[in-house]
Amino acid sequence: MTKNDALTDVTGLRVGHARVPGDRALSGTTVVLAPEGGAIAAVDVRGGGPGTRETDALDPRNLVQRIEAVVLTGGSAYGLDSAAGVMAWLEEQGRGVPVGGPGRVVPVVPAACVFDLGRGGDWTARPDACTGRAAVEEAAAAGLGAPVGAGDVGAGTGAVVGGLKGGVGTASKVLESGVTVAALVVANAAGSAVDPLTGVLYGKYFEGPVQYPATEVHAAALQRLEETRRASGPPPLNTTLAVVATDAGLTRAQAQKLAGTAHDGIARAVRPVHLLNDGDTVFALATGGVPLDAANPLALNEVLAAGADVVTRAIVKAVLAAGGVDGAGGVFPSYRELYDID
């Protein structure tokens, strides 16, 4: 069993969250901080409307070998400014790509955003460099292996999934080989996480026996959700983000494969996905503490399979951890309140 069922079960990774201040603000930023010296990283973008920064640097054909941090943020493209605060903090620590001479580094900080503009009622309340700095400082202050906040925190503060409140979720798994694979997601999708025929979270179908809501409970939930959707105006936008990580020793090409197959985990838990108005993006991080079996050319397969599994489970946990919102920016009930789950 893993310690926290969280991304921080991959030794060396830390997570910090920060929220945009203000009564009508509903947005924030989440930072995944790698061990000093960085981690092998890759990215795979499947959504048709992504908002990203520094993702080209992660192409295995390009120069940068390791990165120190990944930023997931609200605020749509405006919120990408939060990465500047993380970059400044890393420079102060002397962490980044060496470019000649003591202290001369350029921190490469890949980032991706979700659309949550106006969810709290204030269209201009969005993350900035100060939000990013606050999130990375919280990550740095956290102990190794610390629990990770979930639900309405960081980049999940204003997240919505198909009309339901979404948020941050995280999960992990230890394989028979001793390799740990984990994920952190920001569930904020145009698609739904709930099977309309049964009321079961799609991701739950992949976790074993399913407990179905009573027919009358499901019917009432569907009616309430339709009412809140009408009251909240246009369908919510968009994007599920994830960081999938492992302590396995991966090459950059293998990490990119992991980022790509982890999208299967999103597709299991949210339907539909990868639409033109989604920006679904998965980052992969490999810290390299546990070597793969060099004698087995297929050793990576179990890591790939586990990556998709933990992403699916993290989305389920994100939806279950979220609390409902009823404010100036709209009404977004939680799954728990709709289905009367304690």
Give a structural overview:
Helix 1 packs across helix 2. The chain starts with 13 loop residues before the first strand and ends with a helix. It has 342 residues and is of the alpha+beta class.
Coarse morphology: globular
Strand content: 15-25%
Low-pLDDT windows of residues: none
Distance between the termini: 25 Å
Give the biggest beta sheet. Answer: 6 strands, mixed
Order of helices and strands: EEEEEEHEEEHEEEEHEHEHEEH
Strand order of the largest sheet: 5-3-15-14-13-12
Question: How many E-type strands?
Answer: 17
How many DSSP helices?
A: 6
Q: What oligomeric assembly is this protein in?
A: single chain
The chain-level mean pLDDT equals 95
What structural class do the secondary elements suggest? alpha+beta
Gyration radius from CA atoms, angstroms: 19 Å
Helix content: 10-25%
Short structural description:
The longest helix has 22 residues, at 300-321. The protein has a 6-stranded mixed β-sheet with strand order 5-3-15-14-13-12. The chain is 25% helix and 23% strand.
Q: What key phrases describe this protein's structure?
A:
342 residues, alpha+beta, five-stranded mixed sheet, 6 helices, 17 strands, 23% strand, globular
